[in-house]
Structure prediction request, 483 residues.
Amino acid sequence: MLKQRLQQKLLQKLSPQQIQMIKLLEIPTMQLEQRIKKELEENPVLEEGADEETLPRDDEDQENINDIEQDEFSFEDYLNEEDIPSYKLITRNYSKDDTREEIPFSVGLTFHDFLESQLGLRSLTEHQQIIAKYILGNIDDDGYLRRNIESIVDDIAFSQNITTTKEELSEILEIIHDFDPPGVGAESLQECLLLQIERKDHITPGIELAEIILKNHFNEFTKKHYDKIINRLGITEEELKKALEEILKLNPKPGSSYSDPQNKTFSHIVPDFILENNDGELQLSLNSRNVPELRVNKEYSEMLKSYHSNKGGASVKQKEAMSFVRQKLDSAKWFIDAIKQRQNTLLLTMHSIIEFQTEYFIEGDEAKLKPMILKDIADATGLDISTISRVANSKYIQTNFGIFPLRYFFSEGMQTESGEEVSTREIKKILKDCIDNEDKRKPLTDEKLAAILNDKGYPVARRTVAKYREQLNIPVARMRKEL
Prediction:
């Protein structure tokens, strides 16, 4: 039986503008530039340029400015080379505001193109070439064949309508194993290393033993059970050391060794903030080098004003057009305000971080970093923790001693035995120093590392040491063992 009833609910929902504002706050400078370009393309009311107050009011003002510039500056002044200062002739005459862009090359071989070029040097039938190209297409950027032979046989039958066998594919794969870089086309790490060691000159001491270890004792090698290898092969520790040196020279990812100088790629980090230290005085600025100033197109505003003054005589099409213009005007004004609000929020947050970590930003000493969590900055700025988290995400700051992500300055704290609160980053630094200076024949276990830290006045449990060690990407003691 259906019933009607009235129910009140209190819901909190984000408006589309608030969602857009959150997204603008999260993105770094490089993505902001793309976002602004997209908005400029979609909204005809929005345009690049400074505020109207800084621009000439009409054509007469612009002509007056041009006349003044022509009177004060003449092209003839620049024709006399003797008057040109020497610094203008130096190629490294760049200011910090100059954009230095890498010109991309339009030519260059990829790793797979390089492999296919070697295929043309082999005497293969058309049938074999099709199969070989299909195998090369299944080799990843590291140089490994991640798909097994049986599956490739089925794939070629369905996609290429070519009947082949596992034996034929294995023969073609052996040909690919002779390609450069050595180790390409392997199905496992063990096979990859064996393919490389087989190309070595076996006259060199340690090569033959290295091949035996990789072929018959690979499991013991990966787990660093060196004593078992010595006992089973009846060799000395010095002989094993020479063999391990040869194995460590091999490349576990042969595909990554290929690089074409005409196909180079660069990964640039564009800082969102620039911090300069002028005699102990810190000056913070936003990096807005490639972010254009925005304004509302004056013609559309005047068009809307003239429509309101003559609203009674407007046709249906004119009303629809003005409705579109009004919508785009509101969108443009909101977007400009959102960009300004983003800049203010970023600066407010970064100023609070600098104030909290002043000693570090002046000296650049990692030990000067204080324990700082998101809540500390949220309390200092009056903003929500989620807002601080969005600001710190994917943002970088350029300092006199390097470029750092904002997340780098946040760390938990703990109290020493004396009651002093220190950053966990300081403890990690001591932990790393202990591991760097340990005896690699007998690496320090997590229990011993915890005991060392406790002796230094840092009450840390073994599980905490293990957590910090994993965060530093340091393996367990057994995997750090060396001869």
Observations:
- Residues 413-480 form a domain with the Arc Repressor Mutant, subunit A fold (CATH 1.10.10.60).
- Residues 316-356 form the longest helix (41 residues).
- Residues 53-84, 86-103 have pLDDT under 50 and may be disordered.
